[in-house]
Amino acid sequence: MEFPEPEEFGLGLTRKGRNGSGTGKGFAKLMVVAMRDAIELGLQDLTHFEELGLLVEKIGRDRISDITCNILKPQFIQYTQDVCRDLAVSTEQFPVKHASFDSHRMRWCTERLSLPKNPFTNGPILLIPSRFLRELPALDSTDWWNFVEPDLRMDLNLSLNQHINKSEVIRRARSNTDLVRQWSSTSEERPADPYPVDRDPVGLHNWQARTREFANEHPIDISTIATKDDLLRFVEKIITEFKHQIEEEGLWSLLYNDDTGHPKRETSIQLLFKGVVQSYCRAHGIGLDREVELGRGPVDFIVSKDSRVRVLLEIKKMSNGKFWNGLENQLVSYMESAQCSSGWFLAVRFGDTKNQRERTAKLPARTSHAAHQTGFVIRSTWVDARRKDSASNLTEKTEGVQPVNFDPEFEDE
Question: What domain of life (predicted)?
């Protein structure tokens, strides 16, 4: 029942680096207890690990992903070797944990196998057919809430718009195991819905290649960066360049979902920002770290010359319900945790709602107030990512912006 993080796949959920936690000896015992409890609650067998996730805490999509990849690893090893043979991809010998399971000795086995090399980790790579990949699992607690009969939702005093924590989900599910089994059985009938990796409508996969071209075509010239002031000027330049490319060079189109036409999520905006500025940072010996855990949560970016010269940067969509919290609380708390006195707040505007117009107007004053209250160097700017008409239709700078009526004035993440 031990399922370590299968790092050969490069999948999973982690705030820092590429490796997650997996499941060790302590968690293996918890899973066995959870299975026993599930049986006592009336589930005589488990057809989906997601059912277990509804009945016990700490079993979520990342754990289920680890379990699945471990159990199916022998098949993925064979698949990877077949692809490498067919496409003449070079391989090397690597030790691979959980490469097979010895049913007589009842234990996982490590084997040395021929696999392609990951140039970033120097470890082996295992391939997965793209049809198996999706953003979130087919079954999770939210999906179960949506499945629950309306009458039961009324009995449970449950609002679909209400935020229910995992503990509450488990409590309700343990009292209704028949609905848990009915939910998983019904879900099996739904067709698979893999993420279209080639088209990448949300911008999770192809962002690096597409943004590298923009950065190469618009180089930044700056002298040696040695002091905090030098780094602040550098960060201002790359933010100014990012803003220019969004507003004037057509990069705004990459901020919209290709399938729905809706603005992409903040994660995709962060990836686009990272792709544009990464080459600038490398050229000047500057570090760019994304989603670094600082004790009070993950800051979006840390731009650093060394441990003494750093700038924190937070990105928020203007439609985000926690917009001002991002500037006045999140960024400030991250700066305190990192003992960093310099920070940037980058707002991205997609619509013309009253809320977003007011936030645009108030951003400079509230940024100044936050800096005055904390004593930190806090700067901000906003990026106009609203849809643009072609240049031939523009008669003045403020024209050519098409309001988007689908951008809500509440938390959209």
Answer: Bacteria
In this structure, are residues 266 and 320 in contact, taking their beta carbons and an 8 Å threshold?
yes
Question: Mind listing the pLDDT tens digit for each residue in 28-39?
Answer: 787 787 778 777
Phi, psi of 62 (to 5 degrees): -70, -40
Rounded Cα distance, 16 and 295, in Å: 12
Neighbours of 147 (CB within 10 A): 15
Residues 6+ apart with CB under 8 A from 249: 214, 218
Whose tokens are 């290709």? That residue is 258
Q: Are 301 and 242 in contact (CB under 8 A)?
A: no
> In terms of residues, how long is the chain?
413
Please give the DSSP secondary-structure letter assigned to residue 41.
T
Q: Are the C-beta atoms of residues 199 and 133 closer than 8 Å to each other?
A: no
**pLDDT at residue 156 tops 90:** no
Question: Is 35:52 a contact under the CB 8 Å cutoff?
Answer: yes
Burial of 77 (0-12, 13-18, 19+ CB in 10 A): buried
**204 phi and psi, to 5 degrees?**
-95, -15
Name beta bridge partners: 314. 345
Q: Cα(171)–Cα(406) distance, rounded to whole angstroms?
A: 36
pTM confidence score: 0.62
The whole-angstrom separation of Cα 320 and Cα 336 is 23
Query: What whole-number distance in Å separates Cα of residue 165 and Cα of residue 114?
Result: 44
Tell me which residue of 398, 319, 381 sits closest to 347, measured CA to CA: 381
**Interval 333-352: pLDDT, tens:** 888 887 888 889 999 999 99
| Token digits of residue 291 | 């989603």
